[in-house]
Amino acid sequence: MPPYKEQFPKGSRVSIAPRARLEDFRSTWHFHHPLAPEQLPFAGREATVQEVMFYHGGDVLYILKDAPGIWHEACLTDVVPKGAA
């Protein structure tokens, strides 16, 4: 992904990664905006992108309407429509 280009624009529906992936990210990410413990219960839920921000150097960060804190792009995925395999 080129710097300063988000995968999920404002208003997009996203899925928050499963808890195991969030816990792995939390234990290995040692830089800006680490995941907070209160974010972990939102694993696997859907949310709407409220705001997109860019950390210096191009890391994409998100504020979600339906979940607290700042989310890294690596912790989010596309919403898979119900019934899609």
Count the E strands: 5
Rg value? 12 Å
Question: Which residues sit in consecutive blocks of at least 5 with pLDDT less than 50?
Answer: none
Helical segment tally? 1
Shape: globular
Structural class: mainly beta
Helix proportion range: 10-25%
Model description:
The longest helix has 10 residues. By secondary structure, the chain is mainly beta. A hairpin with a 5-residue loop joins β2 and β3. The protein has one helix and five strands. Strands 4-3-2-1-5 form a five-stranded antiparallel beta sheet, with no helix packed on it. Helices cover 12% and strands 32% of the residues.
Distinctive features:
85 residues; mainly beta; five-stranded antiparallel sheet; 1 helix; 5 strands; 32% strand
